[in-house]
Amino acid sequence: MLAMDYRGPYRVRVKDKPIPRIEHPRDAIVRVTRSCICGSDLHLYHGMVPDTRVGMTFGHEFCGIVEEVGAEVTNLKAGDHVLVPFNIACGQCHFCQQGLFGNCHESNPQATAVGGIYGYSHTAGGYDGGQAEYARVPYADFGATVIPDWMDPDDAVLLTDVVPTGYQAAEMGGIQKGDTVVVFGAGPVGLMAARSAWLFGAGRVIVFDHIDYRLEFARTFGPAEVYNFKEVDDVVVFMKKTTDGLGADVAIDAVGGDAAGNALQWLFGTKLKLEAGNAIALHWAINSVKKGGIVSIVGVYGPTGNMVPIGNVVNKGLTLRANQASVKRLLPRLIDHVKAGHINPKAMITHRVPLEDVADAYHMFSAKLDGCIKPVLIPNAA
Q: Which residue in 174, 173, 200 sits closest to 285, CA to CA?
């Protein structure tokens, strides 16, 4: 089968690899019909994530047709079209029982923090992902979810990560009716966080980024007030002035360690890798939220440390909330929101690219070319 193959930072290609096989009675083999490139895949592509090994296949956002199931998978059958949450979760461990499916204790041998994730380095279990013609789905009897007949597969594939991650960002913000919410990052997760903020009762939503075409998209998709941080003297001062000196009620970091916007952060976090990435968006979130406010973090950072203004967190009485999205927990609500027309995930898809052209797709997405917001890879066999 054809599959994406990682060769090192900024180098990927398509390669012929063996079709995966059932390795456990709870496995399924899925013929991939759609697979997205996620903004967090770019952290891998840029060499930001430790223990990303040459030869790995990325791809944690995919859906496909069930080809084969293991002996213990009784709720799926060959021919079912399923969406596959990016979290690999057993559904049975201590943390899964609490609904913390992003923190499954069984799916990742290094599960001191995150559970298993498809195609996301050996720090997340070393599983191959879905940027391929076929994928092995562990714990398929729990994670894989049959796509409702009425749902467009383009919407379904975005329910595997980007939509629940943005939605959970807003949920963790504890948004109250009329709150001002500031979102850092106008990528797909930031866009969904902005859109979701309204569902929780926000009265004002502000989005910062430095890519103008993404800000224009956020203006209508959110909808949101949008600002290019490169055109603002000081993001924190700006936020204070536009909120009567108080700050936002809720700040969402939808950027993570691959941020832009501060030379010192870039030097230590991106260039020298002395920290877990460039944390300027997190600094802005902490410093621009009001006293007693909530900072919600869904941007991806590596496992090493970052210098953050923890004194400001203490002295302002802030609450920090963060986690990988618990996709399986959120799916019923999100499916309802799609059916009701409250969210339109597929509107974010700007490019459909043949799997064979995966290298071009990564370059386009990484370099923000051709107005790219969300690229979807389509295998030949789809």
A: 173
